[in-house]
Amino acid sequence: MIKLLVLDVDGCLTDGKIIYSNSGEESKNFNVKDGFAITNWIKLGGEVVIITGRNSRLVEYRAKELGIQHLFQGIKDKRSILEELINKLGITMQEVAAIGDELNDYKLLKCVGKSFTPFDGASYVQEIVDVVLTCKGGEGAVREMIDIVVKENQQIEQYLSLWV
User: Fold this and answer.
1) Where are the domains of the chain?
2) Distance (Å, rounded) from C-alpha 107 to C-alpha 133?
3) Closest by Cα among 28, 51, 20, 55 to 138
4) What tens digit of pLDDT does each residue of 81-97 get?
5) How far is the C-alpha of 74 from the C-alpha of 82, rounded, in Å?
6) Which residues on adjacent β-strands are paired with residue 115?
7) What class has domain 4-161?
8) Residues contacting 148, CB < 8 A, separation 6+
């Protein structure tokens, strides 16, 4: 049973575009459907962690908005951070699902119980994950991942009872 979701930001929670204004302000597009699914996963009692290679106040804001309690930014070795977190949470790698789209996610995706990449994930990543999603990054890929995990965890009734 999956207990922890590991999320990458650029290319998974967003479309991978980083937009800068003339004053240097950064902008990213987050998908509301992804956010809705994340908050519902948390309501089910699931854990979520964002592990990203970049640093961004926007990501900090989005994590707080969604109730994500575990956030690691500017990380080069994502797998090591995940190993520390699962030890702290008292779970195993088999109880972890992760989504990533690029080579810096490769080692992490190879070690988790269930691995995902968006439809537009790097070809090397697509070759090693369990599921290549039908949605692109930033276009509902995280929502699609969560729907799959909920079904495989046999939590559909609980999940739907949050709203139906």
Assistant:
1) 4-161
2) 19
3) 28
4) 999 999 999 999 999 99
5) 14
6) 98
7) alpha beta
8) 116, 131
